[in-house]
Fold this sequence. Notes:
Elements: H1 8-59, H2 66-69, E1 71-75, H3 76-81, E2 90-91, E3 96-97, E4 103-110, E5 113-119
Antiparallel strand pairs: 1-4, 2-3, 4-5
Amino acid sequence: MDKKGFTLIEVIAIILILGVIMSIAVVSVNHIIDASKESAYNIIVVQIEEGAKQYLWEFKSEIDGLEANDFGVVSVNSLVSKGILRAPVINPLTNEAFPETAEVLITRIASGIYEYEFLIDGHE
C-alpha cells in the first residue's frame, strides 16, 4: 500500500514545534518593542532637557528661584508655550501626553554651569 500524507502524530508534532517557535518569536518581538519604547523615551527626555537649556538662555528671568536659590523649575508646558517644543509631547512608554507635572529641575553648579534633571510628579 502506497502511503500519502502524514500521520496524526506527525501533524501534532509539527504543530507543537511551530507553537514553540512562535512563542519564542513573540517574546523576542515584545522585548524589542519595549527596548525601542525605552530608547524613544530617553531621546525625548534629552530633547526636553535641551529645550530647558534653550529656555534658560532665552528666558532666564522667568525661571522662579534660579537667581536666589541656585535652582529653578521649567515645566514642559512652558517649553511648549514658548515654541521650544511642539505640542503634544508624547510619552512613548504610555502613548499619552506627559502630565502637567512634567518639568525640568535646573540646578546651578557654578557660575554659568547648570545641571538639568527631567521630573514627572517630582520623580525622575
